[in-house]
Amino acid sequence: MRHDHLITSKQLSRGDIETVLDRAAEIDADPSAVADRHAGALLGLLFFEPSTRTKMSFETAMKRLGGDVVDMGSVESSSVKKGETLADTVRVIEGYADALVLRHPKQGSATMASEFVDVPLVNAGDGAGHHPSQTLLDLYTIRENAGLEDLTIGIMGDLKYGRTVHSLAAALTNFDARQHFISPESLRLPREVVYDLHQQGGTTGVREHESLAEVLPSLDVLYVTRIQRERFPDENEYQKVAGEYQIDPETLEAASDDLTIMHPLPRVDEIAPEIDETDYAAYFEQAHNGVPVRMALLDLLLSDDLGIGGDGDE
User: Fold this and answer.
1) Which of 230, 222, 228, 266 is nearest to 247 (CA)?
2) 3-state SS assignment for residue 209
């Protein structure tokens, strides 16, 4: 897959996803087997928004493959502060690295940036757009805990601005998955996302709800998301929905004993700390899975003999 880009989960086929997940499982079982696989390779990190898990897990993944990273650093300490365009920034850093990881607040930024570089570029989140590497680790976690066949999943919280939601929902149309979307009316999935899901084959498995209670007993997985204050153009609109959807032990009384609860993190108050010690909780495992999955993804992107489809043109 050398010189290809991963911009959106919509470019991934079922076979592509299974290739990455199977490779991640191999690496997870024996990370030492790939310890020097990409010795000397450099990964360029360009994060225009704050990040903990994504940035650190990509850095860890590259180093565990034997490579290293070069980091643009904060926007305030970079030439972006001087007015440098994103196109110029990626073209410059392309000269220092063998692959790039970009996070940017503007939707569509990763697609635009990919047009200016020849090294592989991974979209690590573009505003309310997509976050495909997060989707891959989410799918890996789902496969490990509940399986990806005959799956009933509830996706709850900020569905309007949540790029992890948009990305995961698109990828799940490759599998036998019934998707229930639970949110306040004001944070429903954008209509264009619903249309895309139907176009991708999700017509029999996409349902929208305002209440978790009506679907909770049927769920194999509950994917909870944070209400993203930073995405709201109006603070008053945020305050109307803040804290509206929360999971605590009482909420889960009607849940299946086998329910898996996931969250891309960070959380605020969507999941009570008491849930952390239950068998339901898989969100810290989910975060840890970012390393083997991103190791697998980087291995595919940097290797001549491995590949996944798509070129990120969507």
Assistant:
1) 222
2) strand
Closest CA to 288 of 69, 50, 19, 57: 57
Verify whether residue 103 is a known catalytic residue: yes
Does the pLDDT of residue 219 top 50, yes or no? yes
Catalytic residue among 5, 103, 130, 160: 103
Residue of 5, 64, 131, 180 marked active site: 131
Name the 3-class secondary structure at 99: strand
> Quick one: which of 24, 257, 55 has its CA closest to 144?
24
DSSP at 25: H
Backbone angles phi, psi at 59, to 5 degrees: -65, -45
pLDDT-derived band of residue 311, with 50, 70 and 90 as boundaries? very low
Q: How many CA atoms lie within 13 A of 266 on its CB side?
A: 8
Q: Which of 2, 37, 53, 63 is catalytic?
A: 53
82 is catalytic: yes
Amino acid identity at 284:
F
**Which residue of the set 5, 19, 38, 54 is catalytic?**
54
Exposure on the CB side of residue 275, measured as CA atoms within 13 A: 26
Active site residue 229: no
* Known active-site residue 131: yes
Q: In whole angstroms, what is the distance from residue 105 CA to residue 71 CA? A: 18
| Distance (Å, whole) CA 70 – CA 1 | 22
Alpha carbon distance 296, 12 (integer Å): 15
Global pTM reads 0.90
Tokens of 195: 């249309």
Q: Is 53 a catalytic residue?
A: yes
pLDDT of residue 304: 60
